Amino acid sequence: MEPVEALERVAFLLERSQAPTYRVKAFRTAAAVIRELPDGELRRRAADGSLTALGGIGPSTAGVVTEALTGRTPGYLARLEEETGGPLTEGGLALRKALRGDCHLHSDWSDGGSGIEEMARAARALGHEWAVLTDHSPRLTIAHGLSAERLRRQLDVVAEVNARLDDDRLDDDGFRLLSGIECDILDDGALDQEEELLARLDVVVASVHSKLRMAAPAMTRRLVAAVASPLVDVLGHCTGRLHGGRERPESEFDADMIFAACARFGTAVEINSRPERLDPPRRLLRRALDAGVLFAIDSDAHAPGQLDWQIHGCARAEECGVPADRVITTWPVDRLLDWAGSK
Question: Is residue 169 classed as helix, strand or coil in its secondary structure?
Fold first, then answer.
């Protein structure tokens, strides 16, 4: 294992286990620093003990680099693999094996912690054939949401990333990063981005992030208006709940009406896999299944290691009897794009 690979694997496992951000950042920063060093200088510094003289390299990261250069698995990484590298939850393995992509991930263009290409490469390394970049829309200023101008620039970056990934594709894997957005659903059900621009994107996830406690009739109208839009492909984390330390109750709405609208207008219901969301709850997941909707099992990842969280959604979907063919994240990219384009 090369030193950069070892550092990035440590960071991935720390993110996967929800370790503090500062710990993750230390290893990702160190990987970025040594990636720019000539191999000869890296080995010289490791030999004479001067790695920590470089900005961004501390004792722990220097130790990982030095051990990796000897051809051994660094002890720090080996301990992490033993402690956190195993299954995150019970069940879900059959659906996880069937997954081909992920419709919901963020980069440092909004509130994610890593660059677009880094997220794409991590998704590819997990075995995905495609992933959708869905940074936030402009109203979510706390998450540095993308204005129309910034989103247009991001489309160019996505094309550049795909070109680079195509140049160094592994065993003709053909991974593709798709363009998308997590678009805020405004109070009246309108979408927080220019319609012309939304129409250019491959996949649009629409979510509520404000006024989650509005009265049930108004929230129902709000969500129905959004899922009925031909521009919306996926309804994200529909109840908005949070748990596990960051408590927030579910939004109130007529679930049967919402899911009936999703089935009628061909909008998938997201099974959000973030441990603090796990949205929708099982009782609503079963009602959505009975309504005949499609589903998207998504990580909602804000860092590379969080991409592995999809297993949480897979386990809940399997428990509730969701068949794989009704999960759009099990579809090959051409089928996904034909479906999204047909809306």
Answer: coil
